[in-house]
Design a protein that fits this description.
With about 90 residues, the protein is of the alpha+beta class. The chain has 2 helices and 4 strands, in the order H-H-E-E-E-E. The radius of gyration is 13 Å and the shape is globular. The two termini are about 15 Å apart.
Length: about 90
C-alpha cells in the first residue's frame, strides 16, 4: 500500500499498473495533474489467508487549493510472491 501511495506522489503510472492485478487492471492509467499528495494513514490491515488481504487507509491531497481525502478499503491478492491491488470500496 505504501509503495503504491509513493507511486501516486511521484507520478509513476507504470508502477501502479504493474502492481495492479490483471483481472481488474485498466489498459492505461492517466494520473490527475496538479494533485499534491499530503499524507497516508494506514488505519488497519487484515490478512484473510496467505494470498488475500485488505488495507483500510486515508490518503490526503490538495488540488487547486481544495483539500481532499480518499478513504478506502482496498483488496490485495498475492500472485507469484507479489501483493497486487485488486479493487477497493470507498468509505
Amino acid at each position: 500500500m505504501r509503495s503504491r501511495y509513493s507511486a501516486f506522489v511521484l507520478g509513476l503510472a507504470d508502477y501502479l499498473l504493474a502492481t495492479w492485478h490483471a483481472s481488474t487492471r485498466p489498459a492505461e492509467l492517466v494520473l490527475e495533474p496538479g494533485v499534491k499528495w499530503l499524507g497516508l494513514d494506514v488505519r488497519r490491515h487484515q490478512r484473510q489467508d496467505d494470498t488475500h488481504a485488505t488495507v483500510e487507509f486515508v490518503a490526503r491531497s490538495r488540488m487547486g487549493g481544495q483539500g481532499q481525502r480518499l478513504h478506502e478499503v482496498s483488496r490485495f491478492v498475492k500472485d507469484n510472491g507479489h501483493w497486487l491491488y485488486v479493487d477497493g470500496n470507498l468509505l
